[in-house]
Amino acid sequence: MSTEEEVYQEHILDHYEDPFHRGTLSGATHAHEGKNPLCGDVVRIELILDQSDDEGGKVVDLYFTGEGCVISQASASMLLEAVYGKTVDDLKQFSAEQMLELYGPRLTPNRQQCCLLSWKVLQSAVHAPIEDAG
Amino acid sequence: MTTIKTSPTTTDLLPEALRNDFPILNGDLHPGQSLAFLDNAASTQRPVQVIDAISTVYQRDYANVHRGIHTLSERSTELYEQAREKVRALIGAEHAREIIFTQGTTASINLVARSWGDENLRPGDEVLTTVMEHHSNLVPWQQAVGRSGAVLRHVPLTDDGRLNMEAFDRLLSERTKLVAVASVSNTLGTINPIEQIVARAHAAGAVVLVDAAQSVPHQPTDVRAWDADFVAFSGHKMLGPSGVGVLYGKEGLLDAMPPFFGGGSMISEVQFDRFTPAELPAKFEAGTPPIVPVIAMSAAIEYLNRVGLDAIHRHEQTLTRRAYDALAGVEGLRILGPAPEHRSGLVSFVFERIHAHEFAQVLNDRFGIAVRAGHHCTQPLHALLGITASTRASFYLYNRPEEVDRLLEGVVAVQELFAPRGRRRRRKPDE
């Protein structure tokens, strides 16, 4: 049994070809962009966070743009789908291990970096308000 | 589906039996899947003759070199110095003392950039390199001009990925103090006209450093025919161990250069406040050198000499042409670099939409093929070509035409696996 079927499972290729919320978000309150120098993968995530209550805030909407390998782009789609509608606290508590679990197939350390790119960008984005938003 | 109609020119191929010398090539990579090792531009595999040489030295001869009066130190020193003579003969240098053992090509180039560069570069001087250099022949010069106030310039490419020699002539001037150039590009495969470059550089009064890491292992080298001033290469790209490399320098230049590393071995006399450097080559070999890697590299050179570097070159040319012709027929695939007659034993390519890492992953997992995917330590060249990464297949004496055919089969399979086919993600109920 080769490992390749695992790395590129059908539902991953589905996310790659038909991603969740790929695009820009008008009225975004938070945004961040990151790169994976190994592959040249780029992911940018834009969010609208509602922080009007005292509960720490809620993810109203989020979109990603980017380019790069299948793992980096499919994992971004999977991550955004998973945290859509969650609270900001949920999002902050979403760990790297959970991200790798969400992706599914076991990845070598180098390719884990591809998978974790969008996760890192999202973790930074919630702390990166857009200055003139509002 | 692309297929190959031509059969290999068997007369130009080396005997398949030499694969038996390489234990790593003869096991399965995955159960039922043999290994096709096509990442030789990054590092090569070792024949049993080299592996045994390492084991023998440690079991029979090992001690520090140039120090002991005892028998083992004498034996190790003799083997170490025999290796120097073997390297001298390999590259056609005049004197063994012009052969400096280093940790590798990178260390060799840094030695020149630090020692020669810091001594000779002044504000307003120019170092001329090319846009196809490996980071190891670029970053040390960025650092050297940073320290000296000199300026770094880069020779551009022709449209087909060769050096633009007209631009080279325009960039070369009396300000040019050093030209740093690869004999073979590790990404494009381009074979550069070193004799011509050296002649023109010398006419302008510049010295020339040749990064020969990708050529010494694959074809005969004659540093005196090149008339190069410095030549750097590595052991691990020519069947030897990692951690050892060579700097060749013309005696007069090396003599005039200050030592780079200070320490044991590189001195003739030391007082509390000063030292007198040793003669060549010890002057540039401070500390305990990579003794066993040097001796094992010598065994690698013996192996290469027995097969013959001319024969190795012809073998690789046959494989490269086969790979080039096959890949050139794949729709949507772009080969980097020039036509086969201007290239050494490697082919790098990019494919619209599909990232190089997908190629490397699937070729490895499904076909047992090891290729390099990424920027191959030529990030500026990739940026210049408008890409972030490429896939590179690089050949050596043990590769076979069947492995080239397997590569093509794999490339076509990757293309099919990632072709858009109207896939739909499973929607959530509320989406």
Labels describing this entry:
heterodimer; A: 134 residues; alpha+beta; Sufe protein. Chain: A; three-stranded antiparallel sheet; 6 helices; disordered N terminus; B: 431 residues; alpha/beta; Aspartate Aminotransferase, domain 1; Aspartate Aminotransferase, domain 2; seven-stranded mixed sheet; four-stranded antiparallel sheet; 17 strands; globular
Describe the structure.
The complex is a heterodimer of chains A (134) and B (431). Chain A has 134 residues and is α+β, with helices and mostly antiparallel strands. Chain A has a single domain, classed as Sufe protein. Chain: A, CATH 3.90.1010.10. In chain A, a hairpin with a 7-residue loop joins strand 2 and strand 3. In chain A, helix 3 packs across helix 6. Chain A is globular. With 431 residues, chain B is an alpha/beta fold. Chain B contains 13 helices and 17 strands. In chain B, strands 4-10-9-8-7-5-6 form a seven-stranded mixed β-sheet, with helices on both faces. The N terminus of chain B is likely disordered. The chains are: A alpha+beta (134), B alpha/beta (431).
Distance between the termini of chain A: 53 Å
What level of helicity do the residues of chain A show?
40-55%
Query: What's the β-strand tally of chain A?
Result: 3
Which parts of chain B are unreliable, with pLDDT below 50 for 5 consecutive residues or more?
1-6
Q: What coarse outline of chain A follows from CA principal-axis ratios?
A: globular
Indicate how many domains the architecture of chain A comprises.
Answer: 1
Taken in chain order, the helices and strands of chain A follow as HHEEEHHHH
DSSP summary: helix tally of chain A: 6
CATH fold call of the largest domain in chain B: Aspartate Aminotransferase, domain 2
Calculate the mean pLDDT score of chain A and round it: 90
SS class of chain B: alpha/beta
On the 0 to 100 scale, the average pLDDT of chain B is 95
**Silhouette of chain B:** globular
Major sheet summary line of chain A? 3 strands, antiparallel
Please bin the fraction of helical residues of chain B: 25-40%
Estimated structural class of chain A: alpha+beta
* Strand portion of chain A: 15-25%
- Give the oligomer, counting copies of the same chain as homo and different chains as hetero: heterodimer
Output the radius of gyration of chain A: 15 Å
Low-confidence stretches of chain A: 1-5
